[in-house]
Amino acid sequence: MKLNLIATLLLLPCAAAFAQQPAVDSAITSGANAAADTSTPKEPKPIQSFDLTAIDKTVDPCADFYQYSCGNWRKNNPIPSDESEWGRFDQLEERNTYLLYTELEKASRPNPDRTALQKQYGDFFASCMNTTLADQQGAQPIQPLLQKISDLNDKAQIASLVADIQARHLGSPFFSVGSQQDLKDSTQQIGVVRQGGLTLPDRDYYIESDERTMKVRQQFTDYMVTVFKLAGDTPEQAAAEASDVLAIETALAKAALSRTALRDPLNRYHPTQVTALKQLAPGFDWNAYFPSIGAGQLTSLNVVTPDFFKALNQVISSSTLPQLKSYLRLQVITANAPWLSSPFDQAHFNFFSHELEGQDQPTPRWKRCTRLTDRNLGEAVGQDWVRQYFPPDAKANMEKLVAALKTSLAQDIQTLPWMSDATKKEAEAKLELFRQKIGYPDKWKDYSSIQVDRDHLIANLDHAGAFDFTYDLNKIGKPVDEKEWHMTPPTVNAYYSSSMNDINFPAGILQPPFFDNSKDPAVNFGAIGVVIGHEMTHGFDDQGSKFDGKGNLREWQTAEDRKQFVAKTDCEVNEYGGFEAAPGAKLNGKLTLGENTADNGGLRIAYQALMSVLASEGPDGGKSDVSKLIDGYTPSQRFFISFAQVWCENITEQSARVSVKVDPHSPGQWRANGTVQNFDEFGKAFGCKKGQPMMPENACRVW
Ligand SMILES: [Zn+2]
User: Fold this and answer.
1) How many angstroms separate the CA atoms of 30 and 91, rounded?
2) Residue range 168-189: average pLDDT?
3) In which band, very low, low, confident or very high, does the pLDDT at 11 lie, cut at 50, 70 and 90?
4) Which of 432-452 are b and which e, b meaning 16 or more Cβ less than 10 Å from the residue's Cβ?
5) In 324-399, which ranges are E strands?
6) pLDDT at 679
């Protein structure tokens, strides 16, 4: 599980990703300097699409299709000691990371022939790899900020300090601020403040009182004591500070809306005058705050969860100044600990990756630094990366596939048994307005103003963070940039944005096992075809269906159709809510509803698209292809195996438990089995009988 999913969701409140975000905290920060430097990066093999050796033929595909498709892969690919989960997704991500690493490593060597971009990202990477310097400096790189916190002598000054920390991305105390498209007028960029300020991955960790959660809170407390001591506090001070921070974060957690509740766009849409925000939380000096972040002219904004800001006011007024300082200290230390000296890095790894996620060994430094550079200078690094690793024909091939899927979804809407003609017209109009982005941006962001120094990693993070923060805030009041990307080119993922009504496929995912020109159409439609169908179906899931083709929050279903829609989606809520991610840990059917709907719709329309292609343009000139065997499998069977094999994975029990709380995606096992169970064509392809586990009597269908 990659922890910073939270941040991603906050950044993209209207976007749905294909998989949990890879370029995020624990995948990057879960390291420790000492062990890392000794590891030598090796080039991972290209990933095999349609892997016959992964299949476990001792299992009946009608009994457990996931085990059938992935059984041998799972047996032969245990989780590496420096990971908390390992799947075919992760293998591709690791390969992309390695290839990116070779670029960065080359660019990190001082050489007058480097281009300006290479010098910038090369020096950034070099500053990250310099653990000797990090170890010499200890907490010194964040000392000026810690000093500012320590110098506070009046609660009224907190707002300016919070602004300073947020605007440099050197921590995210209390809440986050930025821009977003107005949910009801997608042509407008407005300001937004969102709940936040928690260190643990979800509000539940502060609230629930079962044994496991209490243990996590104790481990969190121990972590805080450790890092406070590393920052120079006595054991007694450190213990008192930890207890104060836990109390503050618990109060914030109790006031935060759950992830499930936040899925409803109306629950996160509260346009508010700045004057009203000041009344909501008068204890926080907004008059100082907004000018400090460069938004002094703001008159109104979306206050995502007003009750949270009321509670924040309460926290500030009922806490003492020293308690609030402890909280700010922890925010800054935690955000930067992975990049400070070994003891800080080790403490961070030990709690967030080892205890919380079950990862045995730290992630090698080269991987972490590669991902960190990609995250901070993604559109600089990406320019050179796509030139080398994104073949020019890939974009044209993807466009063809997208067109095939679009036709298939249009037909699916036509034949949908539960929807009235009036609503079908609206759905088709929305589909007609879908836009797509493939590979990488037409126009790259200009990072030339970001100052990079090869001897100062924290300063580099500060500058890149400030650039990002300002870039985002500057959108307020300006026209929407339809061409902007929210994932970097090497990312192995895809997303749909309901405010943009667009689907986005970074270059990183457009290769095996998702996309392979050397394979038959069945294999490609089962993998990247389903990814495309998945993203399209997001436009019509529990969240997406509330937005129209222009990206505006507007009900376009008739009242009767909406009732039917809810009944159909409830079927999936119950189905997936019965699946377990770890012993006793059932999936949250409501949190995962959008992703499950997208998986089910994606599989169906990709399958229909494949059938159309085989019927019309198979290499044998037509329909005979539908029954042609390759490797002993029909095209239908190859389609389903290719689909399921995307999800071959192993995961630690701890990581699975974190995912259940925070990840809107179901685990791989259920993304495969839960989906094929709902699609009769699967049972037909493998000769299953009604009533067998993979062909139940009562299947769910939304789209
Ligand atoms: Zn998705």
Assistant:
1) 18
2) 97
3) very low
4) eebebbbbbbeeebebeebeb
5) none
6) 98
Separation of 16 CA from ligand 1 center, angstroms?
Answer: 5
d(CA 268, CA 502): 21
CA 483-485-491 angle, to 5 degrees, is 145
pLDDT confidence bin for 393, thresholds 50/70/90: confident
Instruction: Find the helix or strand (DSSP H, E) in which 179 lies.
Output: strand 175-182
CA of 418 relative to ligand 1 center, distance in Å = 23
Q: pLDDT tens digits, residue range 252-270?
A: 999 999 999 999 999 999 9
Report the separation in Å between the CA atom of 495 and the middle of ligand 1, taken as the mean of its atom positions.
Answer: 6
**Ligand 1 centroid, distance to 598 Cα (angstroms):** 6
Asked if residues 603 and 700 have their Cβ atoms less than 8 Å apart, the reply is no
Residues within 5 A (CB) of ion ligand 1: 16, 18, 595, 598
The 8-class DSSP code of residue 332 comes to: H
Write down the mean pLDDT value for the chain.
94
Give the C-alpha distances (Å, rounded to integers) separating 350 from 32, 164, 353: 9, 29, 6
Residue 700 pLDDT greater than 70, yes or no: yes
Per-residue pLDDT tens over the stretch 70-124:
999 999 999 999 999 999 999 999 999 999 999 999 999 999 999 999 999 999 9
CA of 445 to the centre of ligand 1 (A): 26
Reported as half-sphere exposure (CB side, CA atoms, 13 A), residue 296 has a value of 6
Which residues are 178's β-sheet partners? 192
Q: Cα–Cα distances in Å, from 331 out to 87, 146, 172, 217, 574?
A: 32, 10, 7, 16, 38
What's the pLDDT at 22? 39
How far does residue 608's CA lie from ligand 1's centre (Å)? 20
Compute the distance from residue 563 Cα to the ligand 1 centre, in Å: 23
Residue 1 has pLDDT above 50, yes or no: no
Tell me what pLDDT residue 16 has.
Answer: 80
Nearest to 477 by CA among 304, 303, 300: 300
Copy the structure tokens of residue 591: 């949190």
By the 8 A CB rule, do 229 and 235 touch?
yes
DSSP 352: I
**What does each C-alpha distance from 95 to 24, 112, 585 come to in angstroms?**
17, 29, 32
Residues 580-600 pLDDT 10s = 999 999 999 999 999 999 999
Q: 353 C-alpha to center of ligand 1: Å?
A: 25
Q: For residue 553, how far is its CA from the centre of ligand 1 (angstroms)?
A: 19
d(CA 337, CA 349): 9
CB distance 494 to 509 below 8 Å: yes
CA of 552 to the centre of ligand 1 (A): 20
Q: How far, in Å, from the CA of 595 to the mean position of ligand 1?
A: 5
Cα-based distances in Å from 306 to 78, 252, 530:
45, 12, 38
Question: 222 CA distance to ligand 1 centroid (A)?
Answer: 36
pLDDT of residue 21: 60
- Measure 20 CA to ligand 1 centroid, in angstroms: 9
In degrees and rounded to multiples of 5, residue 231 shows phi and psi of -80, 0
